[in-house]
């Protein structure tokens, strides 16, 4: 029963992390223009993986989509690929985890359900690692440009979307690990139960049987 509750909690944590990762992909404010050293701010520049926008002092935003995928910066292309991969891995992980849970009636035998649950946990871990890598790569570019004294273009700071992506990645990795460890606990308990039901003969019993057999041979 405890393993079932652990699987349910792990499923909730993993699915929540996947939802956060999925919402990070189209979310605005991956990077926001820095106001460091500015006395008067007339406009705020921000961007995500798909467009760059500017918001004036009246709150009106004007956005421009990236015109060409091949002309994009390699970092943005890598972050796009990693985030899309993370979303798909989390989607399939949610389906497999739902099938492999002990509280569901689908998935076949307990052994098959354990394998499916373990595979779902690995999917969630990979999803979290992909999202974590994408957000970290994007953040590294922002921080390296911000602290570079030779960089003369407009500098940016970390946006809210990166923190949402980091939180979702940690939840995916945590939930996937819990799913894998829940299978390990169930396998250990099953092994201990089989060992209890089918105990091996002790050394004394084997020696006594050999002694009785030897005595019979003597009388013969």
Automatic annotation (TrEMBL):
Coiled coil: none annotated. It comes from the Eukaryota. The chain crosses the membrane at residues 7-25, 82-104, 116-139, 159-184. Its main location: other. PROSITE patterns: CLAUDIN. One of its GO terms (molecular function) is structural molecule activity. It is found in: Cell junction, Tight junction; Cell membrane. InterPro entries: Claudin, Claudin10, Claudin_CS, PMP22/EMP/MP20/Claudin. Keywords: Cell junction, Cell membrane, Membrane, Tight junction, Transmembrane, Transmembrane helix. Pfam families: PMP22_Claudin (PF00822). GO terms for cellular component: bicellular tight junction; plasma membrane. It is a multi-pass membrane protein. Claudins function as major constituents of the tight junction complexes that regulate the permeability of epithelia. Belongs to the claudin family. This is Claudin.
């Amino acid at each position: 029963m405890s393993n079932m509750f652990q699987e349910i909690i792990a499923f909730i944590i993993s699915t929540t992390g996947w939802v956060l990762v999925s919402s990070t992909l189209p979310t605005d404010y991956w990077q926001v223009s820095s106001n460091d050293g500015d006395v008067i701010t007339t406009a705020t520049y921000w961007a995500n993986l798909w467009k760059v926008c500017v918001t004036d002092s009246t709150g009106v935003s004007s956005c421009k989509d990236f015109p060409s995928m091949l002309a994009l910066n390699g970092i943005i292309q890598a972050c796009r690929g990693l985030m899309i991969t993370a979303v798909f891995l989390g989607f399939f992980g949610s389906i497999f985890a739902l099938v492999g849970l002990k509280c569901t009636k689908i998935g076949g035998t307990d052994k098959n359900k354990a394998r499916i649950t373990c595979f779902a946990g690995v999917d969630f871990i990979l999803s979290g690692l992909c999202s974590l890598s994408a957000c970290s790569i994007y953040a590294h570019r922002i921080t390296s440009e911000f602290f570079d004294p030779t960089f003369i273009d407009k500098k940016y700071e970390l946006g809210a979307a990166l923190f949402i992506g980091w939180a979702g990645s940690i939840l995916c990795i945590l939930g996937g690990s819990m799913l894998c460890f829940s299978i390990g606990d169930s396998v250990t308990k099953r092994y201990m139960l089989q060992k209890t039901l089918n105990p091996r003969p002790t050394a004394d019993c084997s020696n006594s049987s050999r002694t009785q057999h030897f005595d019979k041979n003597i009388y013969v």
